[in-house]
Amino acid sequence: MFPNRFEYRRPGSLAEAVQILAENPDAKLLAGGHSLLPAMKLRLAAPSTLVDLSQIEGLRGIAANGALTIGALATYNQVHDSAAVRQAAPMLADTCGIVGDPQVRVRGTLGGSLAHADPAADLTAVVLALGGEVTVVGSGGERTIAADDLFVDLLTTSLAPEEIITEIRIPDLAGAKMAYEKHEHPASGYAVVGVAAVLAMGDGGTIRSARLAVTGATAKATRLSSAEAVLAGKTVRTETIAAAAAAAADGLEINGDLYASADYRRHLVGVLTRRALERATG
Amino acid sequence: MPTPSGEQPQRLGVGSGELPRWEEGADLSIVGRAHPRVEGDAKVTGGAQYASDVRLPGQLYARVLRSPYAHARLTGLDTGRAAALPGVHAVLSSANAPEIAWYEDSLLFDRTLRFVGDEVAAVAAESEEIADDALRLIVDAYEPLPFVLDLDTALAPDAPKLRPSGNLNGEPTVYERGDLAAGLRDADVIVEETYVTQAALHNCLEPHGCTAAWDGDRLTLWSSTQSVFDVRQRVAEALGLPEHHVRVIKQHMGGGFGSKQIAWKQDVIAALLAKESGRPVQLMLDREAENLAVGNRNPTRQRVRLGAKRDGTLTAIAVDAAQQIGAHPVGGEGADVPAIYQNLYRCPNVRTEQRLVFTNTGPAVAFRAPGHVEAAFALEQAMDQLARALDLDPLELRRRNYADQDQAEGKPYTLPEALGRCYDLAADAFGWAGYQKPPAAGPKRRGVGLAAHDWAGGGGSPPGYAWVKWNADGSVDVVTGTQDIGTGARTGLTQVAAEELGLPMDRVALHLGDTANGPYAPVSSGSATQSTIGPAIRAAAADAKRQLFEAASEFLEAPPEAMTIRDGKIHVAGEPEDRATPVGDVTAQIAPTMIQGHGERGPNPEDKSVRTVGAQIVEVEVDTETGEVSVCRVVAAHDCGRIINPTLVDSQVIGGVTQGIGFALFEDRVVDAGTGVVLNANLEDYHVPTAADVPPIRNVHLNLPDREANPTGAKGIGEPPLIPTAPAIANAVYDAIGVRIRELPLSRRRVLDALATREAPR
Question: Gene3D superfamilies this protein is in (chain A) (predicted)?
Fold first, then answer.
């Protein structure tokens, strides 16, 4: 349970951090460290260099102006406690209050969770369902990646090796109904399956559009497009929710492990989709 | 014990059998009180010393290289690079270690490896990090051998063999009374089912390990063990040392649960590494090694048959039990599964058969109420099924088959009424008779379940000894060679001493856990520490008190038999209260003459059976969509004789029920079928219940002194509370959803599967 030897760097600016990443292709960024350091202790990860982001200014702010902007180094607790986040995207605030355990929530960061792209993370599905996007800085300057394009595969994102997430943007979702339902692993607390649902509402109780995303079941956080199609344009009724839940796992490539088989997870995707929709609209 | 001449040896001090009993209702001022743990301050401030806290000048840290194969022969081992790593001081393996016999037919470092985790080599270095790195530099080569990982494959006719004699450890053990076939013929109803229990891992908070230090040819070992005397004997034997050259110390312990009731290899490996390096060596197991190599609860398969008359009277009980004991006979691997079938219910026709099966998995060892926990899951579900088949209340069925004597031993119980009283207490406290299920809401269903237990332990394991030394200032040191494995034995035993001596608790210091400083006491297993050593301490205190009264007789001008001690003062019958003399006045007068009391735990009664019994009732809620079972509340009632300290008893019950919830719902060692690798030898995948999983647990106190068991009337409570929890939960799950699950754990997936194939209630 001891990591390999590594260099430790603590740059004072983003430019310096990008520079270090460019010079050390197998370097890793250290934000909260609650995913990276255990992996290093198990020697599942052995970066030559750790780049500690903690001294870089301006990566922790949370601002709301219709849309919501959250600095990548904002901790789960900061997001959870933010009145602006609670107002604009209560599901995001709530989920940051149930991630991991208190120690994780004190240190862990929203940007770190998205960059790590753990297949059982909570926030990946939540940000995906919220239609969020991330701003990244790299040697080629700044660009924006939609959550829809961020998660590529197991622990893999579309970030270039020298790119750093600087902030997360959540669009203006005024009036939307949302909820995240999770069936957690009894030991680790990770999502065996988690489903996040966001319903943009039109007139007269109709669902203008729906964004649903699943985590835990698949290699990466994934949209539940079959369920979304069922919901779009419908009014909120028990039958509509049941139909969406029944369709939720359609087309998903679901993984099994020693705790939960693929079949069990498939079943849970339906159950949790229904529960998330019921809670969002209840 | 007869001497060679046939005479009884002269005994120093008092045998506990000679003491007057503490009767029910006796006027006791310290025993029976919820005194806080005497070591509590040290524990909460971090001052209490555990095996891993030992720090000696020049101390090294050791790590063990373990077999990556389930069954293999070691064909090559090159430790050269490891030994050359700066900071490494000693490397041990089959290449250079002495050939020390271990596990009956194996060696300390054997070249035949029989499970993933079997010891291959060990390294001592200046830090754990260096030792870890050194292990990675060892080049090891193996010839893999065919292996078996579970009962089915091990018992197959053409199974690969762990040993030339096959995969059975000895012949099957058969117990019979009456005529089983006749009992089954006479039955109006027969229940016949097979139950499967899993490998649970002890997961003591403090892992196994020790620190070894030599002073010339004398060895001191700080070991995390349930028996300092057994470790001393085993280590001395392995190293060819006389026993007085080995000192074993255990002051505080983060749990043992049976897994530390024997000496394991690391006690000897650490000593050898210390000898080799000339430095003290600490060898603590990490969580993975802990969960591979030093014990687990044996998986079982139990085919159960019950026969009963229409009125519920049992006519036949039979079990055919196969138990997976892992790769090695470590001592204590053969859990007593049959016992509860033989004794929990009155039945004339009983047959039990037990087979112990070797597999290429980590060795099984006693785990809190070994055998009884596994057996109760099967028997108590079968009884529940029988009750429903007969349309009888499950509690009523149990009452109709009440056993008031030990049928296997053919002796009456010392407390034949205890189980019936536990039934009454638990049922009343739970509200069993009037229980109404709440109306089903959404996917959640509620149910209640009951289970009883019998436990062969708790009565004590004589002999055991204690000394009392009365100091000049009137304070007392009590010395015994037992150990406190985290249960609070220190506190309970101090209460017994203080009560008998008539001193306040803070005038008594109890010293234990050191072979050099106390007389023999047995292993802390079988829930026996309080009931073995409590009477010995009481006897030593009585012996010392008698001597004090004799010494005081001259000064106080009163006969010894007129004296009593209360709150540290000697009272003489007929004298006014304010004339009482502080004990210290007498001890100061006679100083430096020291009063010393010696006590011995006398034998258990020969004509009666001392056992412990109890019952638990639980309410569960099942989420029929996810399969999740939540335990809503637990009511427990257990016989432990006189309660010495209610807080400590409640703690044992809460801890036992908590482990029972884990056994019922979560805990399950998963072994990869293709390799024999344990996939969840950690606490991230293997769920041990946490505070969030534990519902309100109410422990109802029976507190019925067992006057015939021993002169304190107290019996053990360490193990029994775990026994009935899992079957009570399984019975409650059945009550909730009408599905009987006969395989543990009741995982969410298993509950859902059972719901999907819902069988008709039987």
Answer: 3.30.465.10, CO dehydrogenase flavoprotein, C-terminal domain (3.30.390.50), Uridine Diphospho-n-acetylenolpyruvylglucosamine Reductase, domain 2 (3.30.43.10)
